[in-house]
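Example 3.2
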Amino acid sequence: MKIVGNIIWLVFGGIFIAIEYLVSSALLMVTIIGVPFGLQTLKLAILALWPFGSTVTDKGNSGGCLSLFMNVLWILLGGLWISLTHFGFGILFCITIIGIPFGRQHFKMAALALTPFGKEIA
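Structure, written as tokens:
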């Protein structure tokens, strides 16, 4: 069922979300300062391509203060709006029973989009 869900996800918008994240990742990686942020949008693009069956886990204390600082900077520079967009789509999809699995994937993406530093996709 995960494969079917991922194919439906890709056909009905997941591929466009992933392309948007890939383009923004490439644009962010043009500058040295933007490379860490570009890597996080690349992480979001990977999750946008195949969300069903993927889990977002916390790496633990590997980043320490730097991870916290980068997450705060991420939120201030646009991560909040990305997260709210995924949260809004999650609410819209959860209105119908058929859309609940897709809404849950948007909620997963909203959580990752809010604080991507220090997290990995498994």
